[in-house]
Amino acid sequence: MHERAGQQARAEDLIDPQALVTAYFDLKPDPTQPGQRVAFGTSGHRGSSFDAGFNEDHVLAISQAIAEHRAGQGVTGPLFLGRDTHGLSEPAWRTALEVLVANGVEVRVDARDGYTPTPAISHAILRHNRSGGAASDGIVISPSHNPPRDGGFKYNPPSGGPAGSDATGAIAARANQLLETGLKGVKRIGFEAARRGAGTYDFLGAYIDALPDALNLDAVREAGVRIGADPLGGASVDYWGAIAERHRLDLTVIDNTVDPRWAFMPLDTDGKIRMDCSSAAAMSKLVGIMGEGAPYDVATGNDADADRHGIVTPDGGLMNPNHYLAAAIAYLFANRPGWGAEVAVGKTLVSSSMIDRVVAAMGRKLIEVPVGFKYFVPGLLDGTVGFGGEESAGASFLQKDGAVWTTDKDGLLLALLAAEIRAVTGRSPSELYDELAERHGRPAYARVDAPASREQKARLAALSPQDVKAGELAGEPIVEVLTRAPGNGEAIGGLKVVTRNAWFAARPSGTEDVYKIYAESFLGETHLRQVQAEARDVVAGALGL
To answer: Per the database record, which ranges form the Alpha-D-phosphohexomutase C-terminal domain (predicted)?
Structure first.
C-alpha cells in the first residue's frame, strides 16, 4: 500500500495532456520490440504514447486490420464507434474514423459528439442486429480504468461482447504485419471528409430509454431511493443526469468533472491515478461521503468506460466486488420470474466460492469459466446464462423477459441494480450479503503477487493437473486440481487448487514478472494466509523448482 493511497493527487502526479498527445503523433513504434507491438489482452490493446505502446501508427494498423477482418467475416452493417475521456482517446478516435471510412465502412458515431460507455456500444450492436439488417459490430476506444497516460482499443464483433482470441489474434497479427511494412496497405482520408462520411447514432437516448427492459426503475422511483452517482470523470458523465431526468429518480451526480489528468482523483493503492471503482483507495472520496449521516441510500462509481461498477452503502462502505456479485445473483434469481428455470449463473474461476454456495442453494446451474468476459457472451446472447460476473467488478444480466441486454460488462446496469435491491427488499446490498454470509459462511478473499521469470510464467500457463504433486493444502485434502475451466473446458492459463473450505488460483501476469495468487478460505483470515503461503510451495513444486 502506497503511503499516499486514498489521498488527493498532487501536481507532480499529473500527466501533461499536450505532451501525451504530441507523443501519440511523434513517436513511432519499433515492431521488433515486444512492448511496442500490437497485443490484445482480455480487454483489447493498451499502452501509453510515452512508451511507444499506443501511438498513431498502432491505431492506423489496428483500424485497417479490423476493416479487413470484418469484411472477411461478411460483416457489412454499421460499425458503432465510441470513445471515453482518456487524453489519448480523442486523437485515436479521429485516426480510427479516418481509416474506417476510407475502407468503405459504414461508421456510426455519437449523435451528441459525446463520450460513449462500453455497454452503450454493446447495446447498440445487439439492438441493430435484432432488427434483421446486415450484421454490425463496434469499437470502444478506452483503456478502461488504466491511468491517464494510457490509451486503449477494444473490438466488439456482432455478438456485441469482447472479441474472442481467434478474432483478436488475427487482427493483432495483421496489424503487426502492417507496422512491419511501414503501414503499407493502410487506407486513410482526412478527418473532415471522414466525419462527413460517418453516420450518427443516439447512444445515450437508446440505452437510457431501454433501461426499464432490464431494471425495475418504477420501484426505485416509488420507494424514493436516494442515489449518489460518481462517473469518476469517465464516459458515463452525461448518462447519469439523463437517467435521473428520463426516469424521474432521486439521483444526484456527485461530480461531473472531465479532466484528462484526473486531477480530482485520490491515488490508488500503488500511488497511481487509476479510475478503479472497486478500489477503496480510488473511491475514498465517495466512501467518505457515505459515512455517518450519509445523504444517499446507495452510492455508485464507474470506471472510465463504465463497464465496471463500485457500490457504496451507508452500512458497509465500499462493497467487495465478490460480495456484490453474490448479493446481485441472489436477488435477481428471486425477482426475475421471466427467466426460465434452466437459466444458469456464470462466474470466472477466480471469483468467490460464495457464489457457488448461493447458486447451489437456489438449485441453479453454475458455469465457471476462465478470466475474461468474452466467455459469458454465448450464454448471455442466447439467454441460457442469466448473469455473468467477474471478481474485478464487471458483470451484466438479462432483460426482465429473459432476452439479452448487453454482452459486455455494464457498470451502469449493476449500479442501478443496487438501487433496485434497496427499493424492493428494503435492505442495502451489503445487508443482503450479510444475510447470505450468515447462511453460507463468511469467506476471506485476497489476491497477492509472487515473483516469476518469463520462463516460469510460460510453464505455469501450460501446467496440467498431473504436475501438482501436493495432496494437501493448509491442513485440508486437495479435492480438485484444475487447469481447464469446468464450465467450458477452456484452458485457464494457470492452475486452480480446491479443498473443502478453501482454494487458490495462480495465473501469470501478462505485463510484469509475477504471477497472481487468488485465494479464499471459509475458515478465516489466518487460514487464508496459510493458503496463500502454501500456494507458492504448490506452484513451485508443480514447476519443478
So the answer is: 491-537
Taking only the tens place, the pLDDT of each residue in 336-353 is 999 999 999 999 999 999
- The per-residue pLDDT for 292 is 83
Q: Which of 144, 159, 284, 430 is catalytic?
A: 144
Per DSSP, the three-state class of 153 is strand
Q: How does the average pLDDT of the chain come out, rounded?
A: 97
Position 527 in a domain: yes
**DSSP-assigned letters across all residues of 364-411:** --EEEE-SSGGGGHHHHHHTSEEEEEETTTEEEE--TTS----SS--H
Known active-site residue 428: no
What is the SS3 assignment for 71?
Answer: helix
Domain with residue 530: its CATH number is: 3.30.310.50
* Residue in 136, 177, 194, 171 with CA at minimum distance from that of residue 62: 171
What range does the domain containing 77 cover? 13-205
The residue-averaged pLDDT of 130-140 equals 95
Beta bridge partners of 309: 302
Per-residue pLDDT at 511 exceeds 80: no
Decide if 506 is inside a domain.
yes
Domain count, the chain: 2
Nearest CA-CA partner of 119 in 403, 315, 407, 318: 407
